[in-house]
């Protein structure tokens, strides 16, 4: 597998942006989702217009109504039927209220699902660190510095990448050993998705560590 390392500004450099610049760069959406008597504040901060799928993924975390069980309704429009459509195309903006219909997980499956969501959240945090390691390594490559000139930086990047790999292996073991019953279909699906996510990130961490070692 060849790792594609994107070109970005090093995270170690302090970047100050005005409120206007932040607003122009990020798409920020705050809505309230009502599920029976429960209400959930959902905040989406993305570098692209948020999609229905983005909202559904956040709702799954907050309300623990799984993606395929969700029906999201806004002013008579059934959002869940077009998950890849931008929310603003439905006229959804900050402060709007959206209705959620769907059965919430319960019992042991709900407990397992919450544990898996926690693992998924931690893995995505590790993913952010890996992306920063990739960005900083690409900056070194573009600067055409020799290993002697930037050895201490490479050592730091390698250490961070190695910690990411170690943490991913730990989370892989935790997810693998989580006892999910055969009839807990939603928890099993989430467990499989997280296992695939972790294996993919392990491949990336192995490739970036190999690239740093051979620089």
Automatic annotation (TrEMBL):
Example GO molecular function: protein-folding chaperone binding
Superkingdom per UniProt: Eukaryota
Listed InterPro entries: BAG_dom_sf, Ubiquitin-like_dom, Ubiquitin-like_domsf
SUPFAM superfamilies: BAG domain, Ubiquitin-like
Record-annotated Ubiquitin-like domain positions: 29-107
Protein name from the UniProt record: Ubiquitin-like domain-containing protein
Organism: Adineta ricciae (Rotifer)
């Amino acid at each position: 597998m060849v790792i594609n390392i994107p070109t970005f500004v090093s995270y170690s450099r302090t970047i100050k942006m005005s409120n206007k610049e932040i607003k122009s760069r990020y798409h920020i959406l705050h809505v309230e989702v009502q599920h029976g008597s429960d209400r959930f504040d959902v905040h989406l901060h993305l570098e692209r217009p948020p999609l229905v799928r983005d909202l559904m993924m956040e709702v799954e975390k907050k309300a623990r109504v799984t993606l395929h069980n969700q029906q999201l309704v806004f002013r008579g429009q059934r959002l869940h039927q077009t998950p890849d459509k931008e929310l603003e195309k439905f006229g959804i903006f900050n402060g709007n209220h959206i209705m959620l219909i769907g059965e919430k997980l319960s019992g042991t499956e709900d407990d397992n699902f919450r544990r898996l969501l926690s693992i998924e959240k931690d893995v995505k945090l590790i993913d952010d660190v890996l992306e920063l390691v990739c960005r900083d390594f690409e900056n070194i490559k573009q600067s055409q510095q020799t290993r002697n000139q930037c050895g201490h930086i490479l050592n730091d990047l390698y250490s961070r990448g190695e910690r990411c790999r170690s943490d991913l292996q730990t989370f892989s073991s935790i997810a693998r050993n989580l006892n999910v019953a055969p009839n807990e279909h939603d928890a099993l699906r989430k467990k499989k998705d997280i296992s695939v996510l972790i294996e993919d990130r392990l491949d990336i961490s192995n490739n970036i560590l190999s690239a740093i070692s051979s620089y």
